[in-house]
Design brief:
Elements lengths: L1 H22 L2 H24 L9 H18 L3 H4 L2 H25 L4 H20 L2 H4 L5 E2 L8 H23 L2 H11 L1 H6 L4 H27 L1 E2 L1 H4 L2 H14 L6 H18 L6 H15 L4 H9 L1
Antiparallel strand pairs: 1-2
């Protein structure tokens, strides 16, 4: 009976989300679009941060790289105007594989270290990309940013549904991993890399696979974000929000649990949007910092840990 109730509630939520662009204001639909983007990034963070317990502060690097790659193809490639709307698909077709290759390559130096050193080095990826953007102004626009031609902009409902589909896809990927042999291997590596290697699990190959899996939906999110925003600034696509907010969302909801990023996105973004509509002058970083401190002190397993414990 509980299973049927759960499926019925899920269907009700999905139908409600599908109707959102028809009943809510543009501001709220836009806010939900951004929520889906951050939910996607949080779910992708959890592939490494949850299943493998590798705190990855570089998830925003995949997002930012794909966003800039999309913008560069649409603005700098001489053949883009001739392709019309097809140019968008070409740009996405370049950006996502490029990001996946980047993730596979950076895995080699990143997984030479563990613990806090891994977190620091992954954050370094974002800083490196920031410098590349600043020093390739002919391509990226540098500190002035780059503007995608308006003919490529999606409508708000199109962007909303694309973001919703992407967020659902990211959560489903995590659900599949949790129930697959790959997920079992990830959990074995999380518990003890030496013991996992002793039974034939290749630590590096599985970690590299996790990083590539985590990079693809984030890259797709970067593409959609770039097309929706139209003008990209380095601070927008490679800034603090994109770097830290996915980690905070995952930790608040419950890192390592499929529903953790979903609950985290509802709570964190809900508070964020509520404060904006209430016109309360609370800086985002202060709010996120308080959340991290509160979760660390009182709910180290996140909200989902409390809910599952009460359900037993």
């Amino acid at each position: 009976m509980r299973v049927w109730i759960g499926w019925a509630l899920l269907l009700l939520v999905l139908v409600g989300l599908a109707l959102v662009p028809m009943v809510l204001t543009r501001d709220l639909v836009t806010a939900l679009f951004f929520t889906f983007i951050f939910l996607t990034l949080a779910a992708n963070y959890d592939v490494l941060g949850g299943f493998l317990r590798h705190i990855n502060l570089g998830q925003g690097a995949f997002f930012g790289l794909a966003a800039y790659a999309t913008a560069v193809v649409l603005t700098r490639a001489p053949w883009s105007p001739k392709l019309g709307a097809l140019a968008v698909w070409v740009a996405v077709g370049v950006a996502i594989p490029l990001t996946a290759i980047f993730a596979a390559l950076v895995a080699y130096p990143l997984f030479q270290v563990r613990g806090p050193y891994f977190a620091v080095i992954t954050f370094g990826l974002v800083l490196i990309l920031q410098q590349i953007v600043l020093n390739t102004s002919r391509l990226s626009g540098g500190s002035y940013g780059v503007t995608i031609p308006a003919r490529y902009y999606p409508s708000l409902p199109t962007a909303y549904y694309a973001g919703l589909a992407l967020a659902i896809g990211a959560v489903l990927i995590n659900s599949f991993i949790a129930r697959s042999r790959l997920g079992i291997a990830f959990h074995a590596l999380r518990d003890s890399e030496e013991a996992a290697a002793a039974i034939g699990i290749d630590p590096f190959r599985h970690k590299q696979t996790a990083m590539v899996i985590a990079s693809v939906p984030s890259a797709a999110a970067g593409c959609i974000f770039a097309l929706f925003m139209g003008h990209l600034y380095m601070e927008t696509v490679l800034g603090t929000d994109v770097t830290l907010l996915p980690v905070i969302i995952a930790m608040v909801g419950g890192s390592g649990h499929v529903l953790g990023p979903v609950l985290g996105a509802v709570i964190v973004r809900g508070l964020d949007i509520g404060l904006v509509y209430a016109a309360l002058p609370v800086p985002n970083l202060a709010l996120y910092g308080l959340m991290l401190v509160g979760i660390g002190l009182f709910l180290p397993g996140g909200i989902v840990h409390v809910l599952t414990r009460k359900g037993r």
